[in-house]
Design a protein that fits this description.
α1 (5-20) packs antiparallel against α2 (28-43). The protein is globular and about 60 Å long. The longest helix is centred in the first third of the chain and has 16 residues, at 5-20. It contains 9 helices and 14 strands. It has 324 residues and is an alpha+beta fold. Helix content is 29%, strand content 27%. The strands form 2 sheets. Strands 1, 2, 3, 4, 11, 12, 13 and 14 form an 8-stranded mixed beta sheet that branches. Strands 7-6-8-5-9-10 form a 6-stranded mixed beta sheet, with helices on both faces.
Length: 324
């Protein structure tokens, strides 16, 4: 695969700017629609033969970026075949209310490089490189926290664990507090939290609990580049969902997936851009001279993580570029 990283950067930046223009307006659907339409439009300018493997849902439910949709300009003689997973706007409610941590996200790989995860919940645990191999999704919470603390050479009471603030996590929250660790409850955005857990200096040491399975695959793509770890197990809601999983090729719905199983690609590209300010990325800023964005782009083939500040200049003769 040729280097797609800057092309993917452009896609998430455009989507972030489009959704940021709806920030604080109280309309989550409008924010999501702006991101989806921008991302779709931009992807169609990239010289690839792309297939959406994780998107906004099935074709009947999503007019754009649905699972199985073809994207890319395909204008070149031999366009690169790419599987693409997108979350056009993680944290639609955060964007609508002006809350912290909304981001636009995309991952790409060669064909078959990303698990075709169904739209269901996934039980997850995410840790950074230091705790890689020390956790077990089937182990008690206290055991995992002690293992993480041991690897980090600190006490359990020094750990910060991110958990989605949901009624289903009441017991998990109680177990973490009983073990002595601290908790950061978030209303949305377990994907960005998972990335933060694998980046030193963010103050996040682990993410626990259940969230979307598609977000789990996107997190795995990022952690393959960051040398972190995610373990995930699909949560089967009913028999219909179990049959849907089997139709997608998932024979054992209770299997615990490792990071390389969720994102097995050899040539992974991950890109995210901040929409509103968060732990990892600053949000979009509008000025009289242009638009400022902050993004992260990662690649696995050539191990590289770039944090990129970009000024998208207005087309004016007296435009100024400021040092950030």
């Amino acid at each position: 695969m040729f280097d797609l990283s800057l092309e993917m950067l452009r896609v998430v930046e455009d989507a972030a700017i489009a959704s940021a223009r709806t920030m604080g307006m109280g309309d989550a659907h409008a924010a999501d629609r702006a991101a989806v339409e921008s991302m779709r439009r931009c992807l169609d300018t990239v010289p690839i033969d792309g297939t959406i493997v994780i998107g906004e849902g099935e074709r009947d439910e999503a007019p754009m970026l649905f699972i199985g949709e073809k994207v890319g300009s395909r204008s070149h003689e031999n366009p690169v075949t790419v599987d693409i997973a997108v979350d056009p706007l993680e944290g639609t409610n955060l964007c609508a209310t002006g809350g912290a941590g909304a981001i636009t996200v995309l991952a790409a790989s060669e064909s078959g490089g990303l698990l075709h995860a169904p739209d269901c919940y996934m039980e997850k645990i995410v840790v950074g490189p230091a705790a890689k191999g020390a956790v077990d999704l089937a182990a008690p919470v206290k055991h995992n926290l002690k293992a993480i603390a041991r690897r980090l050479q600190r006490g359990v009471d020094d750990l910060v664990v991110v958990v989605l603030d949901r009624p289903r996590h009441q017991q998990l929250i109680a177990d973490i507090r009983h073990a002595g660790a601290r908790i950061r409850l978030i209303s949305d955005g377990d994907l960005s939290a998972g990335i933060a857990a694998a980046v030193a200096g963010t103050g996040v040491h682990a993410v626990m609990g259940s969230g979307g399975a598609p977000e789990g695959v996107l997190t795995a793509a990022a952690l393959r580049c960051l040398n972190g770890e995610i373990l995930g197990r699909l949560i089967v809601k009913d028999e219909a969902q179990k049959e849907r999983m089997q139709a997608m090729g998932i024979a054992d719905p209770h299997r615990i997936y490792s990071t390389p199983e969720l994102a097995p690609g050899r040539n992974l590209v991950f890109a995210a851009c901040g929409v509103t300010d968060g732990n990892l990325l600053r949000g979009v800023r509008f000025s009289g001279d242009g638009v400022l964005t902050q993004a992260v782009v990662m690649t696995s083939t050539t191990p590289r993580v770039r944090f990129i500040d970009t000024t998208h200049l207005e087309n004016k003769p007296d435009v100024k570029v400021r040092f950030r």
